[in-house]
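Appendix B, example 12.
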Amino acid sequence: MSAADIKAAGPEVSAPRAHHGDGPAPSAPRRSRWTNGPLLPYLLIAPAVVALAAVFVWPLIKTVIMSFQDVGRKELWTGEAAEWVGFEQFTNILGDGEFYDVLWRTVLFMVVCVVATMAIGLFLAHAMQRMTKAVRLLLTGALIAAWSLPLLVATSIFRWFADSDYGVANMVLTKYLGLDYQGHNWWLDPKQGFFMIGAVVVWGAVPFVAVTLYAALTQVPAELEEAAELDGAGRIGVFRYVTWPVIKPVFQMVATLSVIWDFNVFGQVFLMRGNKPEPEYNLLGLYSYEKAFESNSFSQGAAIALITVLLLSGVAVYYLRQLLKIGEVE
């Protein structure tokens, strides 16, 4: 048979394999709609959704429920049903002048920390652009090490800095600047105390801001900056009209995250004051903790936490909008 005859005859069909045994002949495997279909993506992310719901959604729902009840130590430990009091907890909190003092103190502390963090972070990011590769890698390693340092260790170091007898701050101010700070207690004046607490907050937040902004600065086209300089623009003009429009979305996103983090500062104040902060050092997080665990009014603590969530909801929406804008640009 020639090659033309073989081609005309068509492909050879193989005979089916013989089935040995008493059982039914094996059939072709079927594809389940669960393992290969439109439901597969949802099946894969289901464990993550369940974990997030258990960690975030359920505590939030429980907080909302408790804020409309009167939960005390008895109800918490015995599991008895708490009395529903409606908006009474919110009325008591919003009618208390101390709440507004704490709120104002929290907002002021947050603004100062965010401004300082963003300014120092942007300065370091610009400095990293002008460093040699070796120095930049060394600084980046130092920033990451500072960022990864546990909060307990960081606050212990800064408590040692501010110690009235053996503190580094008093020694430097007295010995090298000629000021009389020997034995000075930084915690007697809340302004000085918050300066030390703010130093811990800023020191821990600057590495993330600096590294993120440096990554954004690397996306600025160098030819545009050179063209602006050739047209007579100074450093401020180049930054304002060339650099800033490129890094603005990232800057806004990082600043929004800093607002959320610094508004919820708790551990730095709690640890710096030896787990017993004075009333003048209360921020919203500490105020909620004090009402819940020291005054045994868990419902008031939950109501304050819920008010905090509502105050930050606008900031969270703004943050999500910035993420969407960045996604559209990319």
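Residues 187 and 193 are 5 Å apart (CA to CA). The two ends are 63 Å apart (CA to CA).
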